[in-house]
Amino acid sequence: MGQVIVLTHTKEEGAGMITAALRAKKLVPRVVRGYAGAAVPTDIGRARGLVVMGGPMGVRDTATYPFLKDEMRLIERALRAEVPILGICLGSQLLATVLGAHVSRGSAKEIGWLPVELVASAGRDRIFAGVKSPLVPCHWHGDVFTLPPGAVSLARSARTRCQAFRYARAAYGLLFHMELTRPGLAKMTRAFEDELVAEKLTAGDMLAGADKFLPRLEPVARGIFGRWADECARER
Fold first, then answer.
1. Identified catalytic residue from 89, 138, 162, 232
2. Which of 9, 139, 141, 177 is catalytic?
3. Does 134 sit behind a cis peptide bond, omega within 30 degrees of 0 on the bond before it?
4. Nearest to residue 95, comparing CAs of 173, 164, 43, 177?
5. Three-class DSSP category at 66
6. Which sign does the torsion angle of CA 193, 220, 222, 117 carry?
7. Known catalytic residue: 177?
8. Residue 15, exposed/middle/buried by CB under 10 A (0-12, 13-18, 19+)?
9. Is residue 42 exposed (0-12), middle (13-18) or buried (19+ Cβ within 10 Å)?
10. Rounded CA gap, 90 and 61, in Å?
């Protein structure tokens, strides 16, 4: 059984539905908690994929969170080895940074259940082809990025021009959260309640959005993550 490295940045944000997609393909998630003092692997080794999850810090916070530098070095090595990468929220920002994109503060935080429009290139993509637009996933970010050089844009929103991209065959960055389950979102609302208050939102607002949008989003997310897991399981 192949192994996929999963980098997490807070105990409240796990890999959600990504974990089930990996296990369905007989892939074993190896969770690395750098924020808790675990050593980030220095090399991708024999891992079949790399997942980089979200978190409350940003790519500019390497002085406070030095393990982020180690994670970006691991992303570089995974790219060189052509190992599939999936970056979610902060993970997409770290991947974008390694690829030479500019990450900056957005005009406003994007938090809540908001539409994402797939662009034409998504229809020709291995994991997004056949997905109907728009999607309404959960967003929880303040930083945004430019499209990395050589990458293909896949999605945008009213506020954010680059919501998702692919680089090479199977390195993906998704700024939004398609992996979230309702229990996972509930943990986030408790841990980061101050961010919700600042945006005049409540945990009830976020969970009501989950009840409304997750039934339609979950099968789409399972398909997207399942097809990415196929890339990890593919013989190279």
1. 89
2. 177
3. yes
4. 173
5. coil
6. negative
7. yes
8. buried
9. exposed
10. 11
Radius of gyration of the chain (CA): 16
Judge contact between 228 and 170, C-beta under 8 A: yes
Q: How far apart are CA 66 and CA 80, in angstroms?
A: 22
Domain count, the chain: 1
| 170-213 pLDDT tens trace | 999 999 999 999 999 999 999 999 999 999 999 999 999 999 99
Domain that holds residue 140: 2-233
Q: Which residue's structure tokens are 């929220």?
A: 89
User: Looking at residue 93, which CATH number applies to its domain?
Assistant: 3.40.50.880
Q: Establish whether 110 is a catalytic residue.
A: no
Pairing of strands 171-174, 164-167: antiparallel
**What's the pLDDT tens digit per position in 156-166?**
999 999 999 99
